[in-house]
């Protein structure tokens, strides 16, 4: 057994030895592999270290060469650095200002309607007359900061007398008995039963109408209502007067007035019936007479601007302190109600507020700091909804007039935002073009140096690294300095805006200006260096090292192999642009229409316009040479023939490089014209919109139902006595307001209908109203000069002037008839026919677009009376109430004369119970914005000219350096330094003038087009801007193209001046070199 095991072990011994040998060999091999791997790792690490060291050395060499290039070519480096600084500073500043533009429109809106975010008042469908402000404040306020800023108010229609105009002999206006009952105690004789004001009227004459506002100065200052109001709380028994009302009353500071107003509602609600019973029934004349107050007050101050407390039309405002009103009235009650003095003085007026003003928490302007109106609307409506819900939506109404005014201005705001965006994009493009021009000139001037470097072993990657390092050596310092400069620029501009708009504080807005500026500061040079790198790498080594051949060539020959793989860059660019255009028109445009996204729609339009602008600039390059030839012969005809011949040859030889400058000047000047047209259009649009609403420069508005026949006699006497007023026209109150019935236009089959309101106008309405707003689409033949005269004819008595919308909506023609629904239940109709279809009229609303479904219609006064007689028996023309009076002033009046007429009109309006309307008051709110836009326009023009000047300097400097040998030869044969300097100055002048003319022409073409308009056999050729035409479609205003001539003169003079500066001094500098040195130049 053991022997068997031993034999088996002996047989297996060779196998074990073989396995051991294999293991030893494997271990040795593994040891060798490990050692080899360690040696390989060491070699790789050594190789990586060597490569890193080489890269660091190469980078250090590149840095040294880039610094040497910057020191050797200081002009180009300074221009490049200035370009980067300008790009970063402009983008940061423009973007920051863009974020603050909502403040601009908020200021305009607050000037027009006041600084109240929400106004709450008792609902019209309830029996409530007042709001208990104390309860509302405790219920709504509290811990909710959003509703802690509010104030109660009263607004009372008042009659006012100046006591110094009264007959004070034996009559004491301070004595309540004399004021109410008369000096002899006989209750003013026969007039006592008819009017309690007769006692004062007998002594003081006819009163002036005013609006008495009761305000709580402390609460309103706390909530930020009246940020420009600089008056303290009025002392007890004192009031503040608006300047216009003070003028009508002939009042000054210290004057004593008598105010008459009724407090019958307050007496009947705040006092028990048991106390007021001796005054008579609450609806009786005796009760109203006893509760009419004649309050003597003293004028404490006179204010010219409402300061945000009220709307800008509150020119007849009387301001009194809320907390002292009850005390002042209780001391001056009617003697018949003197027994109520103690009870009345105990009334807490804060429990009987007519309406309550609410503002968002301060700084409230932060809530409006969005350029998107929908975002602002969402915030304010959310606040209003919560407020109304907390108070009780079934008991109150809420008004948001400030938001409504911002809605009117939203189109202007969108356009201004678009203009700023376009300016940023255009300036960045110009700066990118300038950087490209500077870099391509640097590459061309260093062609020999780059050839030497390539000859000694520098790879293509090394050339790219060198040019990138040179670029970022300019861009990174420019970025840092640009951010610093932008900080001071933004601070300076915000301080300027703060002083212009009288802002107390400017809210901090989160902007991304630094991020945008950083991207632009690094992206512009990176993009601009691409083509110079391709240029440097495309030059063969032989051409780069050949210093004997002149670099200026008039003819170039290029050879291309059919088999050579070349990326078709032009085809890629053109294909990409066409694809973007297709997506823009086919997808984005319908998307904007379907979603009613006005912002997107206008961005599409402006993108198309900018494409037109760029395309025309590129097309103009084809006529660059003929324009230069014409300018040379026109402006330099006096120079010798040799000078003009050399000038033409220089322009041909430098055409490739000069084309960049021509392109920049043409683009920048066309862009400047484009921006000026846009900005002036926004200003003009606002003014025309206000003028259309007012009807004429001066007008009168009658909110009460003053009979037109009686008022017309007063107005006619005023016009006859005033030599500066040519004529006047009257507009009645609407059919709806006279009859309290809704009316509409229906087809004869009563299938299609549209809401409508009917007004009566005098025959001279369109003659008196401001010109330019009447647009006639179609009309019946007439022998009358004025369209409104035709409605006073026999045919016109059965006709109306209606909007063009009904032409399309109801398939109407001039031969059609329609039904005017006069009453709902039971239905009552009048069959009429259209006298004319109008696209637009002054003062009233008519349009051809379905966006304005509810429109107005015009009839004569007799037709209006006939229509009303269907509902009111015996109604005549003499019963028609006056709504508006328009005045036509004589031509050529100065502002002082118009001011004089406005003051006289204010007195007339006060006498007949109307309110004056001067459209210039509406302009004042926008005038500040206009000044700010003017500064913005001038800044844009200056920046565009500076950028173009930089490009011209670099081009002319390169041209002169490139022709150093030729200049040396000219000097050697006797040509003077002045002759050569004059040659290059003339070349720069021709180049700039041709570019300026092309740019101005392109800007005018984009901004204007010939629009033939047919009207009664007359073809009117009218130059209207394309942008203006688009705005005219949106606003239906007669906007015309306006190019300020002073801007054009400044542009041309600046262009000629920059040409002289950019060429004469570099030419004189190189002429100081010796002729031998010039001949040896590379």
From TrEMBL:
Subcellular location, record wording = Cell membrane
Q: Name one Pfam family in it.
A: FtsX
Q: Give the bilayer topology.
A: Multi-pass membrane protein
Q: Where are the transmembrane segments?
A: 77-98, 414-441, 462-494, 514-533, 566-588, 600-619, 663-683, 932-958, 979-1007, 1047-1067
UniProt biased composition (Basic and acidic residues): 1-19
The answer on whether this UniProt entry bears the keyword Translocase reads no
Q: Which UniProt keywords apply?
A: Cell membrane, Membrane, Transmembrane, Transmembrane helix
Is the Transmembrane helix keyword given for this protein? yes
Where is each ABC3 transporter permease C-terminal domain found?
A: 422-539, 942-1073
**Location of the region described as Disordered in the Swiss-Prot/TrEMBL record:** 1-32
Give Gene Ontology CC terms: plasma membrane
InterPro entries with a match to the protein in the record:
ABC3_permease_C
Name of the protein in its database record: ABC3 transporter permease C-terminal domain-containing protein
Upper lineage is: Eukaryota, Cryptophyceae, Pyrenomonadales, Geminigeraceae, Guillardia
């Amino acid at each position: 057994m053991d022997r068997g095991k031993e034999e088996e072990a002996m047989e297996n011994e060779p196998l074990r030895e073989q396995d051991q040998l294999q293991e030893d060999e494997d271990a040795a091999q593994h040891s060798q592999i490990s050692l080899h791997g360690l040696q390989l790792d060491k070699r790789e690490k050594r190789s990586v270290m060597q490569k890193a060291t080489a890269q660091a050395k190469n980078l250090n060499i590149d840095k040294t060469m880039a610094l040497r290039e910057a020191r050797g070519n200081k002009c180009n480096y300074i221009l490049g650095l200035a370009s980067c600084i300008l790009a970063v500073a402009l983008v940061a500043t423009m973007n920051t200002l863009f974020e603050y533009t909502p403040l601009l429109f908020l200021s305009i809106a607050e000037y027009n309607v006041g600084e109240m975010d929400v106004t709450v008042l008792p609902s019209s469908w309830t029996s409530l007359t007042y709001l208990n402000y104390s309860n509302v404040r405790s219920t709504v306020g509290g811990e909710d900061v959003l509703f802690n800023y509010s104030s109660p108010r009263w607004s009372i229609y008042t009659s006012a007398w100046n006591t110094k105009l009264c007959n004070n002999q034996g009559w004491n206006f301070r004595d309540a008995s004399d004021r109410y009952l008369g000096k002899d105690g006989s209750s003013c004789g026969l007039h006592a039963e008819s009017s309690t004001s007769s006692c004062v009227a007998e002594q003081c004459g006819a009163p002036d109408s005013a609006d008495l506002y009761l305000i709580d100065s402390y609460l309103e200052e706390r909530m930020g209502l009246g940020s420009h109001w600089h008056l303290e709380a009025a002392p007890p028994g004192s009031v503040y007067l608006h300047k216009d009302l003070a003028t009508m009353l002939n009042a000054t500071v210290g004057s004593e007035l008598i105010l008459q107003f009724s407090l019958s509602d307050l007496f009947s609600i705040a006092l028990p019936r048991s106390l007021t019973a001796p005054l008579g029934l609450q609806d009786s004349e005796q009760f109203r007479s006893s509760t009419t107050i004649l309050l003597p007050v003293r004028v404490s101050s006179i204010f010219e601007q409402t300061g945000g407390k009220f709307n800008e039309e509150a020119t007849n405002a009387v301001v009194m302190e809320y907390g002292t009103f009850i005390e002042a009235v209780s001391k001056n009650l009617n003697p018949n109600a003197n027994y109520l003095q103690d009870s009345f003085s105990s009334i807490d007026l804060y429990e009987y507020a007519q309406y309550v003003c609410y503002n968002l928490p301060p700084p409230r302007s932060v809530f409006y700091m969005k350029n998107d109106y929908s975002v602002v609307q969402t915030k304010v409506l959310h606040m209003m909804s919560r407020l109304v819900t907390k108070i009780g939506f079934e008991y109150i109404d809420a008004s948001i007039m400030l938001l409504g005014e911002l809605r009117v201005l939203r189109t202007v705001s969108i356009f201004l935002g678009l203009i700023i965006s376009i300016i940023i994009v255009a300036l960045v493009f110009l700066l990118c073009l300038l950087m490209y021009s500077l870099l391509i000139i640097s590459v061309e001037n260093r062609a020999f140096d780059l050839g030497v470097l390539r000859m000694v072993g520098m790879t293509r990657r090394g050339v790219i690294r060198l040019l990138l390092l040179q670029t970022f050596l300019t861009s990174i310092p420019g970025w840092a300095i640009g951010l610093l400069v932008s900080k001071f620029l933004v601070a300076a501009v915000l301080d300027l805006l703060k002083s212009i708009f009288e802002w107390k504080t400017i809210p901090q807005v989160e902007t991304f200006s630094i991020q945008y500026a950083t991207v632009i500061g690094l992206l512009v040079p990176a993009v601009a260096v691409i083509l110079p790198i391709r240029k440097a790498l495309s030059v063969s080594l032989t051409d780069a090292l050949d210093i004997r051949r002149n670099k200026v060539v008039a003819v170039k020959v290029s050879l291309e192999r059919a088999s050579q793989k070349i990326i078709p860059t032009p085809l890629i660019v053109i294909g990409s642009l066409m694809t973007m255009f297709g997506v823009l028109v086919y997808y984005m445009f319908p998307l904007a229409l379907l979603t009613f996204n006005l912002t997107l729609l206008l961005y599409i339009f402006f993108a198309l316009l900018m494409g037109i602008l760029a395309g025309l600039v590129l097309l103009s390059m084809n006529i660059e040479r003929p324009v230069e030839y014409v300018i040379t012969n026109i402006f330099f005809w006096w120079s010798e023939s040799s000078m003009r011949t050399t000038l033409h040859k220089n322009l041909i030889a430098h055409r490739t490089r000069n084309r960049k400058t021509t392109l920049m000047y043409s683009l920048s000047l066309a862009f400047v014209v484009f921006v000026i047209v846009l900005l002036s259009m926004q200003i003009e649009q606002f003014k025309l919109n206000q003028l259309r609403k007012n009807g004429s420069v001066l007008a009168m508005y009658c909110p009460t139902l003053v009979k037109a026949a009686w008022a017309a006699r007063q107005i006619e006497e005023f016009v006859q006595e005033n030599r500066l007023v040519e004529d006047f026209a009257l507009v009645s109150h609407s059919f709806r307001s006279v009859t309290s019935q809704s009316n509409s236009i229906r087809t004869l089959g009563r299938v299609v209908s549209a809401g409508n309101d009917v007004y009566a106008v005098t025959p001279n309405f369109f003659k008196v109203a401001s010109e330019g707003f009447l647009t006639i689409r179609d009309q019946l033949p007439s022998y009358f000069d004025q369209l409104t005269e035709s409605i006073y004819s026999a045919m016109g008595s059965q006709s109306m002037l209606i909007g063009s919308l009904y032409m399309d909506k109801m398939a109407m023609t001039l031969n059609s008839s329609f039904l005017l629904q006069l009453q709902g239940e039971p239905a009552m109709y009048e069959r009429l026919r259209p006298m004319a279809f109008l696209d637009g009229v002054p003062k009233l609303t008519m349009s051809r677009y379905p966006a304005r479904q509810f429109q107005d219609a015009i009839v004569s006064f007799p037709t209006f009376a006939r229509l009303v007689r269907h509902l009111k028996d015996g109604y005549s023309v003499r019963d028609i109430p006056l709504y508006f009076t328009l005045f036509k002033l004589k031509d050529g009046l100065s502002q002082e004369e118009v001011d004089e007429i406005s003051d006289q009109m204010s007195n007339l309006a006060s006498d007949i119970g109307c309110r004056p309307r001067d459209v210039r008051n509406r302009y004042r709110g926008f005038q500040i914005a206009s000044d700010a836009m003017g500064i913005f326009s001038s800044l844009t023009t200056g920046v565009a000219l500076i950028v173009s000047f930089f490009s011209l300097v670099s081009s002319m400097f390169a041209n002169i350096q490139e022709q150093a040998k030729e200049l040396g030869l000219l000097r050697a044969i006797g040509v003077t330094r002045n002759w050569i300097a004059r040659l290059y100055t003339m070349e720069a002048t021709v180049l700039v003038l041709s570019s300026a003319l092309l740019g101005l022409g392109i800007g005018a073409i984009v901004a204007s087009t010939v629009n033939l308009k047919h009207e009664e056999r007359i073809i009117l050729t009218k130059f209207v801007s394309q942008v203006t035409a688009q705005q005219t479609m949106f606003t239906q205003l007669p906007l015309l193209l306006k190019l300020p001539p002073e801007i054009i003169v400044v542009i041309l003079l600046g262009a000629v001046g920059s040409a002289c500066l950019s060429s004469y001094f570099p030419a004189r500098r190189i002429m100081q070199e010796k002729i031998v040195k010039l001949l040896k130049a590379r």
